[in-house]
Amino acid sequence: MKYKADKNRYSHFEYNRCGKSGLLLPPVSLGLWHNFGFVDDFKKAEEIVTFAFDKGITHFDLANNYGPPAGSAESNFGKILKNQLAAYRDEIIVSTKAGYYMWEGPYGEWGSKKNIISSVNQSLKRLNLDYVDIFYSHRFDPNTPLEETMHTLDLIVKQGKALYVGVSNYSVENTIKAYEILKKMHTPFVIHQPKYSMLYRWVEDELLDMLEEKGLGCICFSPLAQGILTNRYLNGIPDDSRAKKKDSFLHEKDITAEILSRIKALNNIASRREQSLAQMALSWILKDKRITSVLVGASSTAQLADNLKCINSVPFTDEELSEIDQALN
Q1: CA-CA distance, 52 to 61, in Å (whole number)?
Q2: Among 232, 281, 295, 300, which has the highest number of CB atoms less than 10 A from its own CB?
Q3: Structure pTM?
Q4: CA angle at residue 221 from 122 to 275, to 5 degrees?
């Protein structure tokens, strides 16, 4: 049966302004880094995406290398858009990125004009779209002039292939340089996508203040630290953990006794708040008004529904925040 969106999809939460731009994003966005490739169950992926949209998630975040195999998440999402969500395209924010390895030879990664133009054209073909809403430089290229990378992002907007641009995995210094280059060209640079979680807090040093000052939004990836900030590791590393897989970004050595001690302490605080550890970890990030959105992955609709409960949680008390900091330190 043809999908028909829930008519109450915009009643679940308020949308956040992305910096000082006109763009609004949901507080929780769906990331397609894992679980949406050719190796995964397509019907389940379709269920997750349509369920997300029914719950008010209008932003779907991809990159050209998401899968596995690389490119397959875009291809699958393109099919879902065409088959189920075509009527709602103007209600949806689609983002993708280029910068990590995609094909052999000297032009298959990083930030050259050659790579970025080739990448955006390939992504649009896989997504079956004329444009994406946000296109990111996925990582800073130390061997290509930043002017070349930023001028190419500007060109993509002028060509109508993206409405807005952003950067991901950029340092504070390089983000400022990118901002200054793009501002001179009046390019709609609106967002930074850094890694941020309770266990990885580098953005608090300078990045968030700088983004607020420049009027840029912030959307965080890996807010649950690749699943560490969930109930999966409270009793050690389960046999089916992502940490035990060869090609995972999470490794068994990352889950130390110290980390396990921290998450158990955090889980005790979450329990008193009547939240799961994952819900509290997401609520903790969203308490900062400089954060536009958090990116969550999902392997099921139930998991996504559970994570969405973070949005309407009770505010943190000063005592809880202090206790959280003590547990983390």
Answers
A1: 12
A2: 281
A3: 0.95
A4: 140
Residue with tokens 């203040």: 209
Distance of CA 140 to CAs 62, 64, 106, 190, 298, Å? 18, 16, 16, 17, 28
User: Which pLDDT tens digit goes with each residue over 236-284?
Assistant: 666 555 554 555 555 567 778 889 899 999 999 999 999 999 999 999 9
Note whether residue 266 is domain-resident.
Answer: no
Structure tokens at 66: 């998401």
Per-residue DSSP letters for 159-192?
TTSEEEEEEES--HHHHHHHHHHHHHTT--EEEE
Which residues face 132 on adjacent strands? 162
Structure tokens at 179: 């901002």
Radius of gyration of the chain (CA): 19
Q: Is residue 212 part of a domain?
A: yes
Which residues, in sequence order, are CB contacts of 325 under 8 Å at separation 6+? none
Assign residue 202 the CATH number of its domain.
3.20.20.100
- Which residues of 149-288 form beta strands (DSSP E)? 162-168, 189-193, 217-220
Which domain does 207 fall in, by range?
Answer: 16-227+277-314
Q: How far apart are CA 134 and CA 167, in angstroms?
A: 10
The whole-angstrom separation of Cα 216 and Cα 222 is 20
pLDDT digits (tens, 9 = 90+) for 285-324: 999 999 999 999 999 999 999 999 999 999 999 999 999 9
Token pair in block for residue 312: 């309407």
Check: CB of residue 250 under 8 Å from CB of residue 243.
Answer: yes
Strand blocks (E) in 194-288: 217-220
Number of domains in the chain: 1
Q: Is 233 within a domain?
A: no
Mapped onto helix, strand or coil, the DSSP state of residue 43 is helix
